[in-house]
Specification:
Helix content is 42%, strand content 15%. It has seven helices and 13 strands. Helix 5 runs antiparallel to helix 6. The chain is rod-shaped and about 160 Å long.
Length: 432
């Protein structure tokens, strides 16, 4: 399998947060396709992982690789095989001269349980070694006792027949000596063979334990790395998550934004609020769509006994020498204030009394705070009027008797270090 295909499969596997197939793909690709207990186990684990992938395109790519592995490792007959027939509703389509069915098992391995199994195997190994050593000691004692018994019996027989077999005493003694030598040699060989067998079994058990411990450690390391990646991805997603925000850009017919920042203008409007010399009414300023007709409302006759809003106009930009692009804000004193309803993909807020937006926020527009005159009866809320309108943003100069004026911070020197009598700057700040 080429390096590009391998990288694609690893990318596809890691893209699935609910089915991490990276370990099995890497193990099979890097380790080759030699059939063994370990590779067959890895193949079965990959089959289970592919079955849990929820993205169909990713699962299809992994199934192609799985089919290739199964074709090259057909000797893994004891492992589960993936089986699936996918059809559209009311239709079954099967093509090809050869059809292979594969079944998938799902297998969950708990690292802590695996460690417990290793500990149990080590304890069982210790018990087995102790048992074998006890068996060797018992066997050696039994053989020694049997040998001693045979020697005693031979000596007794020789003594009882010595009188009648004096001529053969030398031959009998020689034969007895040969028998004793052979018996000792056989006993030593048997003990040596048993000890070698025990050492071989112990070495094999140690090797299997080391392999399983290494596999468990590798799986744990991969799992930890995958968890770290998932946690970092979750942190990035949480930091980037935001609720779309709709806000008003007062004093402009456009929704301005820094270069490259996407923003949607919902409509152009005119700012409405309370009449400056009337008491009562609400303080909330409204950006009413600048369009003909009732716009969903109910037209009235000459009834004036209601809550009334009128188009607002700003005053005293020139009086307060407020700087703006081409001094447009000063030249538009007495004109109706335009507005635009804007939508941004993340959250926004109005910042007042500071020079810039906080770090991590776009400054969508900047301006000066305005509100109702301190001696007027009209109740108009303070809001941020764009200080850099376009040349044709202000289009009406009718006198509708609704005025707002620059907001000035006064008498603050005793409470802090801010300068006295300063028109407050303001901005609309949105998450980057």
């Amino acid at each position: 399998m080429s390096r590009l295909v391998f990288l694609a499969l690893v990318g596809a596997a890691t893209a699935q947060p609910d089915a991490q197939c990276t370990t099995e793909v890497m193990a099979l690709t890097m380790g080759g396709f030699e059939v063994s207990e370990a590779t067959c186990t890895t193949l079965a684990a990959l089959e289970g992982c592919v079955a849990r992938v929820t993205d169909r395109d990713t699962q299809s790519a992994l199934e192609v690789a799985l089919g290739s592995y199964q074709g090259q490792m057909q000797a893994c007959t004891a492992g589960p095989v993936t089986a699936a027939i996918r059809t559209q509703r009311d239709e079954v389509g099967i093509t090809g001269s050869q059809i292979f069915f594969h079944r998938t098992i799902r297998q969950t391995v708990n690292v802590h349980e695996l460690q417990q199994q290793v500990d149990a195997n080590e304890e069982a190994l210790s018990t087995t070694v102790a048992s074998i050593q006890a068996d060797i000691s018992s066997t050696l004692s039994a053989n020694t006792a049997a040998t001693q018994s045979r020697m005693d019996s031979a000596a007794s027989t020789a003594a009882s027949t010595a009188t009648s077999l004096r001529s053969d005493v030398a031959a009998a003694q020689s034969s007895l000596a040969d028998a004793m030598s052979q018996l000792t040699a056989n006993t030593a060989a048997s003990v040596s063979t048993s000890a070698a067998s025990v050492e071989t079994r112990v070495a094999a058990l140690d090797a299997r334990i080391n392999v399983r411990l290494s596999a468990a450690a590798a799986a744990s390391a991969v799992t930890t790395a995958a968890l770290n990646v998932s946690v970092q991805a979750a942190i990035v997603a949480a930091n980037n998550a935001a609720v779309p925000q709709v806000y008003v850009q007062w004093g402009s017919r456009t929704c301005s934004a820094p270069t490259g920042v996407a923003i949607v203008r919902l409509y152009i409007g005119i700012t409405y609020g309370s009449r400056h010399n009337y008491a009562g009414g609400g303080s909330t300023n409204l950006c009413l769509k600048n369009a003909a007709g009732d716009q969903g409302g109910v037209r009235q006759g000459g009834h004036d006994s209601n809550d009334m809003v009128v188009p607002l106009r700003h005053e005293h930009a020139g009086y307060n020498n407020l700087p703006s692009r081409n001094n447009l804000l000063r030249s538009r004193d007495g004109w109706n204030i335009p507005c635009a309803k804007c939508k941004y993909a993340k959250s926004c807020f109005n910042e007042v009394g500071v020079a810039e937006c906080p770090s991590g926020y776009h400054k969508m527009y900047t301006g000066y705070m305005h509100g109702g005159h301190e001696r007027h009866h009209g109740n108009n809320d303070r809001f941020c009027i764009d200080k850099n309108p376009a040349d044709n943003d202000y289009q009406h100069s009718h006198d509708w008797w609704g005025y707002v004026y620059p907001t000035i911070a006064r008498d603050g020197t005793s409470a802090g270090s801010r300068n006295n009598r300063v028109v407050l700057a303001c901005h609309t700040c949105c998450v980057r």
